[in-house]
Write a sequence for this structure.
């Protein structure tokens, strides 16, 4: 069995949108027993205030080897002077404080056992730099997994200065040049990487997906049927504010006489600005819930809402919402075609561009409310297996094997 050094910043018990892809890869790599992942990740004791989800621990194999590293990132105990200093030097982002810790721990592991391959998943982009340094120092093949764009195709990345952007572009160029293969989540990001100089034959698309093991939801508690529910479950990023604002303006029209559609919002990380926005009688904000509870709630919704502000691709939430087999309303970045194409065969969905008027958003909700019956074609659901996490782990193994590495097998 070959060993793959598996670097991920996000791993349970921490929870974040970036947790699920590496977690499910590791789960099924261990199950398949062709590759042995050795995980290096952030020490969960450093930031006790960050959201945790112990329900995700069920997916960590008992015999998985995990190494935890520290960081120089500011904590709640850091003084104002250090916070100010670190803010000025953090490039490409705050997790750069963990760069040397990931690097030294990885070298320690490489020196103590045979490592056949290095796999890093980004963001944070710091791990792309770590992977590149490891490749240059050890000549062990490197695969970089692009979950999101870095200097391009990512509206969430707002570089503070022109110099900061230029430094990030230089880092990204070096990562792409040194990677033996690149993995990404959709064809748009594949084209982006190709345009940046990556060899097209070395770029592999493995989409995000869902895990059948998470979908034991035959017994689902439905909400009060007299009031239908629009449901959001997930992290609420600051960049989502104007998207929520537009949705709420449309809901005000729907609910102007009586509450027809209640908006249930579950998710951590909101600011005071969001709290003020959510202070409306038809909105119930319940804060953070764990992943398995979110899946249960999505199964019980009248309509699930998806916000996608990325220029390309779709969040991992998209795949879970389709698997829940409930109507989906999606408000997306005007540049994004992926969500529209992905949901086109899924009859119970409406995709609206961010620049659309409140009247158009209102029309989308009205259409879904008028046609609540399940029109999902059986052949579409049957074809959905290709998005299962187990299948995707097999795709990842194929990428690993394509490098023709020489190693021990069982």
């Amino acid at each position: 069995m070959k060993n793959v050094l598996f670097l991920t910043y996000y791993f349970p018990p921490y929870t974040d949108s970036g947790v699920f892809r590496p977690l499910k890869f590791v789960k099924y790599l261990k199950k398949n027993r062709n590759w042995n992942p050795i995980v290096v990740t952030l020490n969960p004791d450093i930031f006790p205030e960050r959201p945790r989800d112990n329900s995700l621990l069920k997916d960590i194999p008992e015999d998985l080897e995990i190494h935890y590293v520290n960081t120089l990132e500011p904590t709640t105990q850091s003084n104002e002077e250090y916070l100010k200093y670190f803010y000025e030097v953090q490039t490409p982002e705050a997790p750069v404080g963990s760069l040397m810790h990931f690097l030294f721990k990885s070298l320690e592991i490489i020196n103590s056992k045979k490592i056949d391959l290095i796999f890093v998943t980004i963001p944070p982009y710091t791990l792309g730099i770590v992977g590149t340094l490891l490749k240059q120092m050890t000549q062990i093949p490197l695969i970089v997994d692009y979950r999101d764009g870095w200097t391009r195709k990512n509206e969430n990345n707002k570089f503070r200065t022109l110099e900061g952007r230029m430094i990030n572009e230089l880092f990204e160029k070096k990562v792409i040049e040194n990677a033996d293969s690149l993995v990404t989540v959709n064809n748009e990001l594949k084209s982006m990487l190709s345009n940046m100089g990556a060899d097209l034959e070395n770029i592999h698309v493995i989409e995000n997906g869902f895990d059948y093991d998470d979908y034991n939801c035959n017994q689902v508690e439905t909400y009060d049927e007299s009031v239908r529910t629009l449901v959001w479950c997930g992290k609420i990023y600051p960049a989502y504010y104007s998207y929520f604002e537009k949705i709420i303006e449309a809901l005000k029209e729907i609910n102007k006489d009586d509450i027809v559609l209640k908006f249930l919002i579950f998710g951590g990380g909101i600011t005071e600005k969001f709290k003020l926005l959510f202070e409306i009688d038809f909105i119930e904000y319940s804060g953070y819930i764990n992943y398995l509870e979110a899946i249960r709630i999505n199964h019980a919704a009248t309509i699930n809402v998806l916000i996608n502000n990325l220029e390309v691709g779709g969040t991992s939430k998209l795949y879970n919402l389709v698997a829940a087999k409930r109507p989906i309303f999606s408000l997306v970045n005007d540049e994004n075609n992926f969500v529209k194409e992905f949901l086109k065969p899924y009859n119970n969905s409406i995709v609206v561009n961010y620049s659309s008027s409140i009247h158009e958003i209102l029309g989308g909700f009205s259409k879904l409310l008028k046609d609540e019956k399940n029109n999902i074609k059986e052949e579409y659901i049957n074809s959905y297996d290709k998005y299962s996490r187990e299948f995707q782990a097999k795709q990842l193994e194929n990428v690993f094997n394509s490098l023709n590495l020489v190693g021990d097998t069982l």
